[in-house]
Structures are given as C-alpha cells and as structure tokens.
Design goal:
Shape: globular
Pfam family, one: DUF6879
Distance between the termini: 39 Å
Strand order of the largest sheet: 6-5-4-1-2-3-7
Strand content: 15-25%
Number of strands: 7
Helix content: 25-40%
Organism: Streptomyces hebeiensis
Largest sheet: 7 strands, mixed
InterPro entries: DUF6879
Protein name: DUF6879 domain-containing protein
C-alpha cells in the first residue's frame, strides 16, 4: 500500500479523524472540472457516484472505527467548497461523519498549520500543499505534544461545527 491515508485507515482500530482547512484543493482535478461544467451526482444512482475510497470507508467503519471529517471554510464559500459540499453525501452514505465550521467560528481555536489525519489518537499524518492546493508532501508525527495539539484542535472544531445534513454553504 503506497497511500499513507489508506495505510492509516487500514491500521486504525478506534478512530480516524480528518481536519480540512483549505478553501480549495487540486484545481485541476477532473471531477472538479466536470462539476464546474455542470456534472452533478445523482443520489438515486449509486453506481454513478460510488468510488473506491467509499469502499475503504465502509470497511473501516465496519470494523468499528469511527471516521469523522471536519472542514473549516471561509464565507462566502469558494466554488471548490460548493463542489465539496455537493459531493459529500456519498461519504456520509458510506459511514463517515462530516461537519462544517465557518472560519470566523474557529478564530480562537489553536490550529495546526496544515490539514491532517489522526488515527487512534496516537499518530498524525500532516499533508502539505502548494499555494494552489496540490499535495506536495505528507509527514507522520507521533510526538505526544503534536498528537495533543491535533486532538485538541479537532475536538474543538468538531464541537462547534454543524453536521453536514444541517449545514448550508453561503
């Protein structure tokens, strides 16, 4: 397995949390471009939106691992965040819990400098991006102070954030 996120999910036994803080990711992504051109997922046609990562979510949550994703977003939201919002229902259908937090409501939360995944509250995978949102590197960290920062930040965001089903991007 060469994808560190998939490796972390495969090893997780209790929890996997994902904190996203950018307003745009991978602007050259073919699915984002198709969405910009009008493509929308049909919730009634599962075969049109099911993708391999959702199989991983089902398998991971099926082992009893709680998967939570929190997104901090600027308002008004960017076109990319509108896209993310539109394509999140498959993640929820697969068993992932997703919440959204407007950036103004996160201003007093000490946050790491970049997006992260944390597995079982013991290891953190930071993802580093270029200015336009392309992944440039990833780094595993297990120092107790780093894990504590990631955990505290995520839980504070999660507590304030709105569940996907109730969030309405502005």
């Amino acid at each position: 397995m060469t994808n560190p996120v998939l490796e972390g999910l495969a090893r997780a036994r209790r929890s996997a949390v994902h904190l996203e803080m950018r307003d745009a990711y991978q602007p050259r992504d073919s699915e984002f471009i198709a969405w910009q051109q009008g493509k929308r997922l049909d919730p009634d046609d599962r075969s049109s939106w099911w993708r391999p990562f959702l199989d991983v979510v089902v398998e991971t949550t099926g082992r009893g691992v709680e998967m939570r994703r929190a997104r901090i977003v600027s308002e008004p939201v960017t076109e990319y965040i509108k896209y993310e919002y539109d394509v999140t229902f498959p993640n929820v259908a697969a068993g992932e819990l997703v919440r959204w937090l407007p950036r103004r409501n996160a201003a007093d939360i000490p946050l790491p400098g970049t997006d992260l995944w944390m597995f079982d509250g013991s290891s953190v995978l930071f993802t580093y991006f270029s200015g336009i949102g392309e992944v440039v590197d990833r780094e595993w960290r297990t120092e107790p102070a780093v894990v504590a920062l990631a955990s505290t930040a995520f839980e504070a965001v999660w507590e304030r954030a709105t569940p996907h089903e109730a969030f309405k991007p502005v």
